[in-house]
Specification:
With about 325 residues, the protein is of the alpha+beta class. The chain has helices spanning about 25-30, 75-80, 80-90, 125-130, 235-250; strands at about 40, 95-100, 110, 110-120, 140-145, 160-170, 185, 195-200, 215-225, 260-270, 275-280, 295-300, 300-314. The strands form 3 sheets. Strands 8, 9, 10, 11, 12 and 13 form a 6-stranded antiparallel sheet that branches. The radius of gyration is 23 Å and the shape is elongated.
Length: about 325
């Protein structure tokens, strides 16, 4: 895929023409689109290595609420059984599924929605923050070793540490390949969309046959994840309505045109990393039994389908 250095506006990639059954994922269109924009939560120094560059002058930092292992080193922090137990014993909140656990480091994903420092390792508190944030699809809860003062290469190159519990929110699903702490995805369906019925959960992407010899597939739209584009099926609804508008302005010779009355919205991942929101558009509603496309390969790259839902025009 092409790389970009700025966060762009939403990018819609339109299939050139309806394709016959089966409807394979349009990987050429996906690769022609910008890469997803990945960001990380703010980082602080957590290693024992002396700094080579002057920062601030040993300014005191807020004290964390977690235990500080002895000796106060990065290695002891990583090996602390007490900290590991607080993570492994934490409950999975209702409405969420555990995506990954037990890794060490930071998460890099799309649609970062903010960070909150907690008083304890509490998955329920972190889930509550996600529940109250419009568009939140996942949260990442982790323990971070932070300096007690802003490190300075000359005066305080290796200050004592403090331990913080941090909760970050994300507007797209997260996976272990993106992260190195502990992440949870919402297991609940996406919201309803104005003027459409649904969502209906699917086991894959719709792969519709011809309907009495007629092709009902109207093409696709693909929206790479970014700080402005998360998992939002209403974007697919807007694309569906726009397709109907386009068709009405370009009717057949007899004046007829196809109305987009059904769409399938899902997360497309490449090698397990969520890439963007994929929307398949149709002129007919298809049952979940036709959701048989669970992914495909392009060379050695594996593309998979997740969080697949359908909506029908009301």
């Amino acid at each position: 895929m092409r790389s970009i250095c700025v966060i762009s506006a939403l990018v819609a990639v339109v299939a050139a023409a309806p394709a016959p059954s089966p409807q394979l994922i349009d990987l050429a269109a996906v690769e022609a689109a910008p890469d997803p924009v990945l960001v990380s939560a703010p980082l602080v120094v957590t290693s024992d290595s002396p700094l080579r560059k002057r920062d601030e002058t040993c300014v005191p930092q807020p004290a964390g609420s977690g235990p500080v292992p002895e000796p106060d080193t990065a290695a002891a922090f990583r090996a602390s059984q007490e900290l590991q137990d607080s993570s492994s014993n934490a409950p999975v909140p209702d409405g969420y599924s555990l995506s990954f656990a037990g890794a060490q480091g930071s998460l890099s994903a799309s649609k970062y929605m903010g960070l909150t420092t907690l008083e304890r390792y509490d998955t329920l508190d972190c889930a509550s923050l996600c529940d109250r944030a419009v568009g939140c699809q996942a949260f990442n809860l982790y323990i971070e070793r932070d300096p007690t003062v802003s490190p300075n290469a000359d005066d305080c190159p290796n200050p004592a540490s403090t331990t913080n519990y941090k909760c970050t929110l994300w507007g797209v699903p997260v996976v272990g390949e993106q992260a190195t702490n502990k992440g949870y995805n919402k297991a609940t369906p996406p919201p309803s969309v104005d003027d459409f019925t649904g969502p209906t959960a699917l086991g894959g992407a719709i792969n519709a046959p011809l309907d009495n010899g007629k092709n009902t597939y109207l093409g696709n739209r693909y929206f790479p994840f970014s700080q402005t584009q998360g998992y939002d099926p209403s974007v697919c609804a807007a694309a569906c309505n726009a397709q109907t508008g386009y068709n009405s302005r370009h009717p057949s010779a007899d004046g007829s045109y196809a109305t987009c009355s059904f769409f399938n919205a899902y997360v497309l991942s490449q090698n397990a990393i969520p890439q963007g929101l994929y929307c398949s558009l149709y002129s007919k509603t298809w049952a979940p039994s036709f959701a048989t496309n669970r992914g495909q390969y392009r060379g050695s790259d594996r593309f998979t389908v997740s969080r697949s839902y359908s909506y029908s025009l009301a």
